[in-house]
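Recap quiz, item 2
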Amino acid sequence: MFGLVFFPIVAVGLATSIVRSPYQTEQGIVRNQPVPFGHEHHVGDLGLDCRHCHESVEKSAFAEIPSAEVCMGCHSEVWRDSPMLAPVRESFQSGTSIKWTRVHDLPDYVYFNHSIHIHKGVACESCHGRVDKMPMMYRDASLQMSWCLDCHRHPETNRRVGDAVFAMGAVEDAVATGKTAESKTNCSYCHR
Amino acid sequence: MFPPACKSCHQINEGRRVVRSVPIATLSLLGVLMIAGCQPHMVDQPRVDTLQPSAAFADGLGQRPPMAGTIARGRLPIDSPEETGLIDGKPIDRNPLEISDTLLARGQQRFQIYCAPCHGAAGFGDGMVVQRGFPAPPSYHISRLQMAPDGELFKVISQGRGRMPPFGKRIEPHDSWAIVAYVRALQLSQSADIAELPEVDKLPFTSSEAGALR
């Protein structure tokens, strides 16, 4: 009689922890990329603004993966003969896309929009973590629905003003205090 | 030896209970594997998302380049002065947008995103990328660039020049004009005549404290 209760409970617990583990969510797992691009160097060391490369993030649902043309803006001169950048030069000359491995990929039944989050003051860092400290990109958050709802139910602590949205690390006076935070939790806002 | 709850499994000499528990344990384990291995097909639906490949086109790109002559929504005809900075092939003298605080603020923001990495925050051509080995662009504060018409600066932003890549695909004309206005403000900041400043702005240059600082 005890087993009838014990094993299903353990089973559900085990299943839940597997589903929530990085094995399923890919949280914290570095993926192989055709070019070992380092956000740590470009954002942390050089101080490039996110929008220098992800230029559509303010006006589109998609943040834009920069084309080889954007890379070559600097790498036509800097590290111009580096073997690591060979795929970039090849893509620039041939016009064939580099096949990056997508790190942040939501299920197709979730209609996420970058621009509205940016305009409401949700910092890049709030979802993507400290990319200025990531030599190679990984998922900082689980991207699970419970994680979305954590913020959607309490958005007030996660909103910044102005260009602090694009800043990395704690930003003084950046939290949009006093602003009323209205956030959507209807199913159909994200699941159309 | 075991607390009562554990006895159901651990008292193996009570064979009856073990026999009953094994199928439940097996079924539960199977359930775990089924739930954990569950990958519903709706996660990757058969549609082309942004930048995803598509077998429907010879080049394999799902995102199609606009056809020649396409005018994007909200944009002017591609040969209009606002889009090219030129009239009859010659750069226009004055920025077609009305210069305002808002425009300058926008220009400053866009300048810092796209231009400052090479040109430096004040336009002396000493940005971070230059410090890392990119050939230095000319300073904005040379007479050739101080004298250049607004349309010329716009054309360089959108079409590039020398080692500078074209930014026309990445910066919309309105923002490029805002950057032009901000570059003009930067130039003025380094070359304005102190006598022409409003009284309040003259103070830092005339007071003894400021003189000591300099």
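The mean pLDDT of chain A is 88.
The radius of gyration of chain A is 20 Å.
End of item.
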